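Sample 1 of the test manifest.
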Amino acid sequence: MADRPVFSYFYSMKNSAIGEKIIKTASKLFYSNGYNATGVNEIIAKCGIAKATLYSHFNSKEDICLAYLQQRHDAFLTSFKIYVPERKNGKEQLLAIFDFLTDMYRDGDFNGCWALKTLGELSPNQERIFAAIQKQKKEFLSYLGEIVVNNVVNVSKAEKEKISGGLYLLYESAITESHLFKNDWPIFLSKNIAPSIFERMELV
Amino acid sequence: MADRPVFSYFYSMKNSAIGEKIIKTASKLFYSNGYNATGVNEIIAKCGIAKATLYSHFNSKEDICLAYLQQRHDAFLTSFKIYVPERKNGKEQLLAIFDFLTDMYRDGDFNGCWALKTLGELSPNQERIFAAIQKQKKEFLSYLGEIVVNNVVNVSKAEKEKISGGLYLLYESAITESHLFKNDWPIFLSKNIAPSIFERMELV
Amino acid sequence: MADRPVFSYFYSMKNSAIGEKIIKTASKLFYSNGYNATGVNEIIAKCGIAKATLYSHFNSKEDICLAYLQQRHDAFLTSFKIYVPERKNGKEQLLAIFDFLTDMYRDGDFNGCWALKTLGELSPNQERIFAAIQKQKKEFLSYLGEIVVNNVVNVSKAEKEKISGGLYLLYESAITESHLFKNDWPIFLSKNIAPSIFERMELV
Amino acid sequence: MADRPVFSYFYSMKNSAIGEKIIKTASKLFYSNGYNATGVNEIIAKCGIAKATLYSHFNSKEDICLAYLQQRHDAFLTSFKIYVPERKNGKEQLLAIFDFLTDMYRDGDFNGCWALKTLGELSPNQERIFAAIQKQKKEFLSYLGEIVVNNVVNVSKAEKEKISGGLYLLYESAITESHLFKNDWPIFLSKNIAPSIFERMELV
DNA sequence: GATGAATGAGAGTTCATTCAT
DNA sequence: TATGAATGAACTCTCATTCAT
């Protein structure tokens, strides 16, 4: 893990070489062009495989979407969990998410948040995808909670949740708005505002 | 509706009665099911018009999308601009957006932000829609700036922008995340955090 | 009606020229190759129309099948109802169905009973088609009942039903088995056996 | 099974254990859902074997169909040949087929005649299956002829054929129509009509 | 001897759009 | 003006079959 780049979407791959290729290809297409706008024809063409081959690896396009979301989420959280402890305790760790996001933003293919993008496309009947996204965001929020616990002292549980929740909300805005404005000011503003939340609290 | 903005997609419509019906119908479908997942067949079926009639009012589905976004944006901003002055100056007006959002959230058809939802579906070639969304968000951000100007005194331009930008980011998160979690905690948390930004500043 | 051939499947056509063509084409294919073995691609190719054109006339392949069955049934019953009164009362009319069937058998494209063929292909979930076939057969059976009423006297209702039911069963076998054996012996045997049923009864 | 017919599709199977499982599984599916509507994927899934395993036992889906028909036919005729001699000579044996059918009808999975169902689906190029069905029906008809020979005396060959043919036709209707109407009246009516055929003949 | 992996062809259906009338 | 009719292209997904291992 050490030699790998700070952040990459393609950490945790399964065994199947073709399965990986499908996810990787679909991932790029879904992320850049949208889930509904991407057809399986496009995926198999880019993969150089037959349609039936794709469907022997995934039961449906929806399943590919779920794999895509899971894989991006895993890669994101795994990388972030490596990134955070490398920073100094206190403010540095609490604001780590914004610097991490800055790295993501600088990536040539940055396109906002994969999960929120997909969320926006969902019809009411696509409950599985909805549930997956919600679960992943809760996981992320939960990890932010851990960071707060590790870096803030003498505060109530409610105050801790205010901090982690606040960091979460500011991160979510930052990733979406930096994409929308094709500019990193939302990231810096979020990072700039965040400390107001834990201003009078005691950090480790 | 009395004082329409200088530019509106309504202007290009030949028969405003049918045109508005199309937008209204498409609006509901785009908002609840997504833009790409909504077909023109569904729109004309719900409208009870012929396909060629739709295409005599709009050049393309993309144009309907632009009209949809414009109309939602206009309605939103118009209502909000009526809502704000009715509140007490100072903190009340600065936090007005969150109470306004709470009302929106309580609406039975709440589904998050129409613009961000659409943004997530865009392919790189759909620049017109991208530009429209960006423009609308800038307009909203700009109005938040006006509110700040009217309710904060003795602060630098940079500090004003930090406030309006912060309110904007918190609002954007709040609308998306309350939809994602099907819960209004993100709205209340945003409202709760917002005052930290202008804590030491002088309000009118 | 007078100048038309004794029996034709294409009596009752709807207005739409293309709709007619689709049914007519599908009809031939379903009847000769089977319903499931016939693809919509084959139908549109033979029709010389686009796929979407087919689907603007019929909502599904199943609907085409229903139209096919209905049309064959209507043509059959209509022709038969013209055929019967032209024959002498009594035995002649009671056995008319077998002579009518002989004409059908001699048609170059004879392939057994369209309805029973389709019945055999049905999955448990294709209830609409099943119901349609059952209804049509009941209608036919009912008309055989009318013939019996008109040609037999002084017999109980039960005996009348035995005759019409018997004629029906013998007809159904005759059409299927003459197809299976590529020979008309089942038709002649059915016609030969039928009189045994009403042997001792009084005919008009 | 003790005295297998000279030719049986079972003979060509390499591993009869798996081969029989395939036929058994396919048999259920073909009979309840139709031949064309049943995919080999469904068969191997229910069998728990690999696709290549299936194709090492049968050269094609058509071959499985032939084995299915042969097996059903063998089981039917074998059982029936045990059933008949157990009944009293004369009318009882001549009408045995209808009581036998009543038992079949009462079975939970009754779905009409496997052979006629398949016959209805055939395209003109599926001659092997057509021939197999014809052969099996001839075999059945032939056995009905044996029954007649054993139970009717002093009648010409033609009259015997009229009886066996009549029984055959009434049976074929009865099995198909009881399925179509989901009611056993066609069986009882057939049994009721049959004696008219040999009414004046001398039984053993 | 059984399999996992792959495939070309085609299934039924819907897409956004156009055009003669 | 509004429409009915038509379309090529694309959609997601499944078919029966093969072959290297």
